[in-house]
């Protein structure tokens, strides 16, 4: 460490983002390794647990909904820190939330990891069960030293004024100058053998101790939990049934993997630089395109403003014209009425006419005047304004335009984006991808794209298939691989953006096709087989009620077996089936031809439950003979549950062996390795695996009791697609 050059200092400074705690956003301080393998400061773990503890009003609450903190956390009080740091036994006696009151089963503490934002289980010991990340702590200290290269670390033993230190002793946890180091580490003494490094303030223990057994050294590595353990953890602790390896072997393996991965990344340095240059160009292009898009948006809005201004001027002009016309009419009417006043207008004129004494002249003038006086008199009797004062006809109706402006958005080339239907899309022997389009009639065709997701190599190119409908079957996919699918719509030469990607995992082996055998061992009195021979149902009828009478003398009704019509002698094969949710008891798995003959030659109406076939063992000797290979394996499914058989390598508690029944269950038979595994097909996750004797031909085997049904998964073909679309 003390020999680092300037290049090393620059390298250390370049990894700052890896040394920041995701909770407090500062450099790690005494980082702890969480079960999810992310690191977090020791004080941040305490503060987060305190925040979670304060959010619970009931000490028996089970879960927390608080999200991971992203801001600096307030400092907790010392009594709360002490309460968090207590061992699990003390917390239990105080009724802390990590334990349920009046319960014999301890509850573990859940903690929201700020790194992955998932709840992790801290176990019974809580913080005390977490390892301190000394490697990360050392790197952080080296970073701090590189950042404060101008600041020297002073000797801890010098008399004032202290000298600059030249060495730090990891055994003494102190820094020394040359003179003090010679004084306190004289030659020929035990201290002369102490480990010393360059000046540092980070002193870590030379031996890593087990957090669960504080006096024991760490000397093994649990492959299941991916954490170091001591020999007591393996002998009688939480890792007694786990597979462990020596620390040297784990060190060698992990170091080889890490070195290999680093060498791979270093070997791809030119590719990384090329992609960085490409990203830089993309950023510049994005900047230019963003500015251009803003300019275009401003232009469009300015056009809208111009249209609005024109319409505004036109509307205001029309209103002004109408207002002027009405005011003119009112003015004329007002002047006419003012003329009816005495000595004004018409009345005044009439009064002057009455002064005329010449009869012929009076008659000539008075006739027309009398007509006007009569009209004025009538207007007085029925007063009517010359114009309307309301402008109701001039109210601007902007409801439609307001709605359109409220929906104003970006123009996506005129074609809506299709959406992949995740419920109808599936993968089995082939992949069936279905999608729907909001405006189906407006799309002429679609292009379905798919590619294999390969994490170890470069991003693979997309494969394209032109489709006229809204579904497509894709074949020739590799087994046990993830594939990404997306689709886009075409209207003439106009293309829509791509849909959201759908990730599907292919089966772990080629799909094995078979039907139920209606001849070998098929009991048509208890079982009902459809014409296609891919579905069987158990009839819980009169015969079963008669057999149930024997329960009074300790007998139980037997299972009704049905097998596949094709056997397997070699290779690796996968098939899937669905169990109806109403099923009471269904057993499914594989059995050899010899074992099936033994079962089907001597059918019995009743058997003892002690020797009922379950996972290939009788219940009395299951634990002792589990490791011996057997020619059959059956798992139990029923009452919407999937039951994992007992095993000495895993917990046999009922709550750990009972899982929710998957919608579709898969079976993987590997005759070459002599193993059988059961899968949750929707997530392609292995639920249970064990060894099986494949020296004879193996057959898919099923057994039913009570009401129930089994449906074989149908192979995906073009005919299957046509049938689905007709549905």
TrEMBL record:
Its main location: cytoplasm. Pfam families: COS (PF18568), fn3 (PF00041), zf-B_box (PF00643), zf-RING_UBOX (PF13445). Residues 67-77 have a biased composition (Low complexity). Residues 21-72 form the RING-type domain. Residues 205-247 form the B box-type domain. The keyword Endoplasmic reticulum does not apply. InterPro entries: B30.2/SPRY, B30.2/SPRY_sf, Bbox_C, ConA-like_dom_sf, COS_domain, E3_ligase_FN3/SPRY, FN3_dom, FN3_sf. Keywords: Coiled coil, Cytoplasm, Cytoskeleton, Metal-binding, Microtubule, Repeat, Transferase, Ubl conjugation pathway, Zinc, Zinc-finger. Residues 354-411 form the COS domain. Residues 417-509 form the Fibronectin type-III domain. CDD domains: Bbox1_TRIM36_C-I, Bbox2_TRIM36_C-I, FN3, RING-HC_TRIM36_C-I, SPRY_PRY_TRIM36. Residues 494-721 form the B30.2/SPRY domain. It is found in: Cytoplasm, Cytoskeleton. It comes from the Eukaryota. Residues 61-81 are annotated as: Disordered. Belongs to the TRIM/RBCC family. This is E3 ubiquitin-protein ligase TRIM36 isoform X4. It comes from Odocoileus virginianus (White-tailed deer). The lineage of its organism: Eukaryota, Metazoa, Chordata, Craniata, Vertebrata.
């Amino acid at each position: 460490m003390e020999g680092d050059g300037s290049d090393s200092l620059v390298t250390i400074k370049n990894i700052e983002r890896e040394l920041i705690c995701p909770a407090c956003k500062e450099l790690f301080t005494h980082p702890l390794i969480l079960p999810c393998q992310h690191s977090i400061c020791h004080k941040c773990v305490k503060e987060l647990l305190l925040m979670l503890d304060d959010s619970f009003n009931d000490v028996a609450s089970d879960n927390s909904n608080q999200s991971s903190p992203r801001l600096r956390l307030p400092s907790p009080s010392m009594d709360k820190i002490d309460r968090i740091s207590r061992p699990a036994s003390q917390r239990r006696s105080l009724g802390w939330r990590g334990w349920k009151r009046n319960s014999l089963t301890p509850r573990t503490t859940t903690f929201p990891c700020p790194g992955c934002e998932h709840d992790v289980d801290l176990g019974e010991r809580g913080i005390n069960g977490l390892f301190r990340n000394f490697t990360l702590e050392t790197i952080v200290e080296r970073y701090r030293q590189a950042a404060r290269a101008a600041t020297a670390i002073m000797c801890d033993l010098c008399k004032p004024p202290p000298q600059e230190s030249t060495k730090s002793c990891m055994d003494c946890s102190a820094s020394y100058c040359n003179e003090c180091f010679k004084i306190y580490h004289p030659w020929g003494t035990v201290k002369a053998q102490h480990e010393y490094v360059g000046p540092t303030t980070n002193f870590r223990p030379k031996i890593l101790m087990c957090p669960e057994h504080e006096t024991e050294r760490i000397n093994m590595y649990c492959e299941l939990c991916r954490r170091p353990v001591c020999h007591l953890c393996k002998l009688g602790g939480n890792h007694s049934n786990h597979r462990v390896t020596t620390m040297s072997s784990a060190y060698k393996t992990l170091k080889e993997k890490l070195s290999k991965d680093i060498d791979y990344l270093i070997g791809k340095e030119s590719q990384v630089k090329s992609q960085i240059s490409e990203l830089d160009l993309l950023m510049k292009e994005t900047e230019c395109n963003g500015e251009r898009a803003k300019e275009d948006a401003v232009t469009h809005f300015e056009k809208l403003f111009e249209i609005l201004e024109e319409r505004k001027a036109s509307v205001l002009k029309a209103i002004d014209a109408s207002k002027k016309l009405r005011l003119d009419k009112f003015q004329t009417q007002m002047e006419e009425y003012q003329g009816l006043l005495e000595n004004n207008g018409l009345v005044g004129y009439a009064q002057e006419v009455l002064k005329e004494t010449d009869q012929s002249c009076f008659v000539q003038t008075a006739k027309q005047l009398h007509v006007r006086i009569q009209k004025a008199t009538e207007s007085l009797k029925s007063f009517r304004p010359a114009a309307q004062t309301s402008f109701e006809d001039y109210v601007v109706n902007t409801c439609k335009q307001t709605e359109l402006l409220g929906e104003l958005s970006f123009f996506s080339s005129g074609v809506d984006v299709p959406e992949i239907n995740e419920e109808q899309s599936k993968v089995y022997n082939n992949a069936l991808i279905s999608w729907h389009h909001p405006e189906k009639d407006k799309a002429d065709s679609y292009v379905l794209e798919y590619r294999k997701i390969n994490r170890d190599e470069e991003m693979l190119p997309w494969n394209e298939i032109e489709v006229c409908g809204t579904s497509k079957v894709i074949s020739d996919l590799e087994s046990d691989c993830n594939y990404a699918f997306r689709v886009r719509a075409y209207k003439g030469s106009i293309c829509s953006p791509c849909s959201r990607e759908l990730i599907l995992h292919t089966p772990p082996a080629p799909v094995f096709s078979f039907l139920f055998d209606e001849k070998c061992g098929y009991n048509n009195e208890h079982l009902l087989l459809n014409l296609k021979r891919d579905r069987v149902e158990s009839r819980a009828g009169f015969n079963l009620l008669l057999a149930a009478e024997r329960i009074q003398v300790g007998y139980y009704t037997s299972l009704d077996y049905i097998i596949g019509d094709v056997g397997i002698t070699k290779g690796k094969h996968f098939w899937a089936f669905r169990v109806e949710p109403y099923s009471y008891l269904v057993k499914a798995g594989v059995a050899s031809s010899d074992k099936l003959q033994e079962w089907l030659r001597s059918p019995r109406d009743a058997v003892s439950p002690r020797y009922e076939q379950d996972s290939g063992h009788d219940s009395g000797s299951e634990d002792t003979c589990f490791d011996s290979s057997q020619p059959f394996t059956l798992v139990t499914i029923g009452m919407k549950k999937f039951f994992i058989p007992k095993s000495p390598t895993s917990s046999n508690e009922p709550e750990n062996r009972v899982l929710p029944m998957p919608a579709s269950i898969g079976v993987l038979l590997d005759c070459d390795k002599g193993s059988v595994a059961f899968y949750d097909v929707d997530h392609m996750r292995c639920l249970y695996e064990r060894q099986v004797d494949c020296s004879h031909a193996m057959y898919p085997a099923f057994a039913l009791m009570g009401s129930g049904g089994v449906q074989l998964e149908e192979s995906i073909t073009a005919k299957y697609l046509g049938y689905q679309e007709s549905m």
